[in-house]
Amino acid sequence: MLEHLKEQPKDKILALMAAYRADARDTKIDLGVGVYKDASGNTPVMRAVKEAERRINAEQTTKAYTGLAGDPAFSDAMIDLVLDGAVARDRVAAVATPGGTGAIRQALELIKMAAPGATVWLSDPTWPNHPSIIKYLGMKSKSYRYFDSDTGQVDYVGMLTDLGQVLPGDVVLLHGCCHNPTGANLTMPQWKGVIDLLKDKAAMPFIDIAYQGFGDGLAQDGAATRLVASSFDNVLIAASCSKNFGIYRERTGILMAVAKDEAQRDLAQQNLAYLNRQNFSFPPDHGARIVSTILTDAELRADWEAELEEVRLGMLDLRKQLADELRRLSNSDRFDFLAEHRGMFSRLGTSPDKVEMLRADHGIYMVGDSRMNIAGLNADTVPVLARAIIDAGV
Ligand code: PLP
Ligand code: TYF
């Protein structure tokens, strides 16, 4: 039986992690996988998470199953965090999922059940797991232009031109904030333009929001998602708690389905619970409980928000240092976009050859498409990276 299996394509980001670990140079710099790191290269457990875990440990009286949708307190808290009242609560169905990835997978399965012929439109480029899951599920997809490598900015004209081809009932996947892998984001007026176009085309938006709080702040990073959610009858939203709560391995995420009315919400809720049952029965609870404990306790929430803000401002500062150093070394403003990008990532916009040169000659590990994890830098490595980028002739 197993002899009929064939080799599957590897995840390039995860393969890069392994290559970094195997590199013996102590000057090596890891700008690969999207995990936040502090100035010493550690990925700490956040203070509020530690305290929430302590409380859960002391107070939890059972580990019996939750419901198929997970703990309702988690759904309520996350709907509030992401949507902040933009849509009436009785229009939102939600299930806890194993990470943001689980939410994306469930969303795509829901789309497949409801509209098997729909095409899912993806930004070019996007997070590689989007096309990979779509292909695995045998669904149709197309891509829309998103990034202009020459300017480091969103190719808004190209994006609207390509989305002009969207058919009624198609699904358009948008990154709610902090676009992965480019770091380039739509302005609010541009979001309004995309919303108008999608309404015109009778398409359904599907938002992937995995970095709320990493860009311009918790509220600002949710603003586009809220505007989209309040502009359509139906919207799917996959949210991850991996990054903003630093609970990557707990596998904590949520899928929300905004419905036209309460009756449609009930139908969506029943289908989401059904999908959870087909795939894993009950979603993981520990991370979800950490999140709801933090979000519903004023003191813990304030401490979490403060630490998240430190993380966000630290990354912004590194962006600025890198852009300044490259401005000095190149005597030009052509790297200024690095300071304008938001979130963990920036796409440098150089060739795979140059990326390989940076790895081989300097021990600098970025993803092959020239995506850099800004959090992998510190004040000492910024000048090293900037010098290497110039030396490689980027
Ligand atoms: N969506 C995007 C764009 C991501 O970068 C990630 C990765 O962290 C996820 C979703 C989901 O992450 P996780 O499944 O770890 O919550
Ligand atoms: O893009 C990243 O680096 C993060 C982490 O299969 C990640 O989103 C990478 C690959 C993967 C799952 C998560």
From TrEMBL:
Keyword Metal-binding among UniProt keywords: no
Keyword Transferase listed: yes
Domain Aminotransferase class I/classII large: 27-389
One Pfam family, short name: Aminotran_1_2
Needed cofactors: pyridoxal 5'-phosphate
Gene3D superfamilies in alphabetical order: Aspartate Aminotransferase, domain 1, Type I PLP-dependent aspartate aminotransferase-like (Major domain)
GO molecular function (one): L-aspartate:2-oxoglutarate aminotransferase activity
Leader sequence segment: none
Class of enzymatic activity (EC top level): transferase
Keywords: Aminotransferase, Pyridoxal phosphate, Transferase
Any GO CC annotation of this UniProt entry: cytosol
A single GO BP: L-phenylalanine biosynthetic process from chorismate via phenylpyruvate
EC number assigned by the record: 2.6.1.57
Complex and partners: Homodimer.
Family the UniProt entry places it in: Belongs to the class-I pyridoxal-phosphate-dependent aminotransferase family.
Name of this protein: Aromatic-amino-acid aminotransferase
Species of provenance: Pseudooctadecabacter jejudonensis
